[in-house]
Amino acid sequence: MNMQHKIDPITLEVVRNKLDGIANEMESTLLRSSFSPIVREGLDASASLFTLEGESLAQAVAIPIHLATMIPVVRRISSEFPPSTMEEGDIYLMNDPYLGGTHLPDIALVMPIFADGRPIAFAATMTHHQDVGGMAPGSIPTNATEIYQEGLRLPPLKFRSGPERFDETVIKILRLNSRIPDTFMGDIHAQVSACTVGAQRVAELARAHGGNMMQALFAELLDRSEQMTREALRKIPEGTYTYVDYNDNDGIDLDRRIRIEVAVTIRDGKFICDFTGTNPQVRGPFNVVPSGTQAAAYYALRTITGAHIPTNGGCFRPVELNLPEGSILNPVEPAPVNSRTATIKRATGAILGSLRGILPEIVGADAAGEMLALMFGGTDRNGRRYVVGELIAGGSGAGPESDGVDVIETDATNCMNLPVESFERDAPIRINSTRLRRDSGGAGRQRGGLGIEREYEVLAGEVVFTHRGERHFCPPSGADGGESGMTARSVIYRAGGEEEVVPSKLVTRLFPGDRVLILTAGGGGFGPAADRDRDLLRTDIANGKVSREQAKEIYHLADD
């Protein structure tokens, strides 16, 4: 802390809450202004404020993967464009994973915030763009074998000089590399609007307190969160704890499981995650650059240290990572990375799973741990190109005192599936049915959350369809005697009567009359199934969550 600025604790708390409010206002602006359904309805975008050193200062309630992976993005941009050279209104962008990004659809925009004629912080947003080119509509081809097939790569670029002068060359490049350029640029400008709101609000706050005082407050907020986080870690039993889990496959070698192994050491206020033993990098696009595993560790740390600690970069200072070079968590360029979310989620689950034995009141059974991504791309009846994506969840794991939650994103993701009306408005595809998947939650004293069943039918035209699934072969584990959740399953029913079981990952073509049925995994159960309260079990049956057959065979419910 700069001792020239005495910190008043009341002012500090007022400013902290104001910064959180600004980040959430940025997020609201971003979602409300976006054009694409994956952002407007699916909420796949995030906003945050940063110090000039690239530490997160305040985060919106958004996507944990984005909020963490923006950290190296901001640092990379500020290293290539030093803040001392920036002018008010400048905006910078990038997405390249090997330069600090995460995957190509996630484009970050960063804007300096000025006070007293100089930059004091950054406003930043990251949006998952519906299409940034590449070999398949939606830009997440599960059969990619190098990053060049995945879409447009953007190094750190100056996108706008001052408040009005956008780089028209960059705009032309962006538009020419997307199948849906108007939607793409609409979402880009939504990011501009959100950054502008953040910069204006923080500048207003700085006018009340002064730029130097604001930076002193920033430093104090980060230091306090670091101190509180280290204190929380010191209350957890020291030791090294291990866990192993698997992804289904890499989209290329469909019968080969992908090992994620972690040893978590808690010692002297440090949180050390060593992924030695994890699978070498794979041919398919399920590799993760280091920023992704950083996001997994940050999320896990915040889960176990308590919501009372303000979330900012200070919380993350105790984290140390060992990511073997050439592994799936630290691949060598040009390894493909577009489907990295599945691996980040598995890494997050492994970190938390390693701590289940010492923190059973916090870490329950395994969640479904999948964010099923479906991409549909084609041309509608009017000749208009469309790309529509769905992000669909399974069930969360049960805990010692509560059932899992049905159909909810867990750990490092926080998206929503699309409302039927929104999806059908944007593509000539009908959603025939949506329902909870009965019996999918792992049986236990506390039952795992259920997955979902959803069926799509192509009405017109040829569709390029991408299916990025998980948990088709490796079920979510139960805990303390609870049963595993049901594995996922997807089937294509062709108009001619043929059936094709999707092997977790697939890029194919659909035609009018073809139907796709998806069934996501349930969460693991907690405790022996025979110990479940009989009244709760009867309510499950009445609500269609558990069949009478499962109640009798697994829960041993006597006939009423």
TrEMBL record:
One of its GO terms (cellular component) is cytosol. It is an enzyme of class 3 (hydrolase). Its EC number is 3.5.2.14. InterPro entries: Hydantoinase_B, Oxoprolinase-like. The keyword Iron does not apply. Keywords: Hydrolase. Residues 8-528 form the Hydantoinase B/oxoprolinase domain. One of its GO terms (molecular function) is 5-oxoprolinase (ATP-hydrolyzing) activity. One of its GO terms (biological process) is glutathione metabolic process. It comes from the Bacteria. The keyword Transcription does not apply. This is N-methylhydantoinase B.
